[in-house]
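Quick check before the chapter quiz. The format below is the same one you will see on the exam, so make sure you can read both the input and the output lines.
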Amino acid sequence: LRLVAILKAILEGEKAAVLKRDRHLPLSFHRRQEELKFSLGLQRLQHRVHEIQALRDNPAASLQPDLRDPQLKTEGKPPESELPALILEAVKELEAAKQQVLKRIQIWKRQQQLAGNGAVFEENLAPLQKRCESLVEVYFQLHQQVMGASAKLGAELLPRLLERFNEVLSSLVKR
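Here is the expected output.
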């Protein structure tokens, strides 16, 4: 982990030096960076769904503390409290991924508007559609896990989670 942190710091320093020298990077670099961030977020979300399923299937087995993620410290917590915390973390990540998709949709709409004035416009909607479909797929997996664990979540947490789920799906559909 220390090696990864050192390499990350070196790469961030190099990126800052390039940005300082050139003042900006090509648009394709930023788009690729955004795609990688979204892919990583989606993979983390899928991993959370699998963790939730594993915890539901075997509630006696406590998850090992994830040293890379300081937000999820499970040491000292009873297994019953791990599931709601893990689900809440997964819902936060789902909402963050939704925001990334909505941001990309907004950028696409703006580029389409600018195309009316002669700006270059890439009309290919396939990457945007793939993002939406993969996010909705993970959404349904997570929703299924939450509904399966509804008895363990309590009467006050479940309605809040369902409301957040409905907001995610409705905002994706409406925009």
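If your answer matched, good. The CA atoms of residues 136 and 169 lie 8 Å apart.
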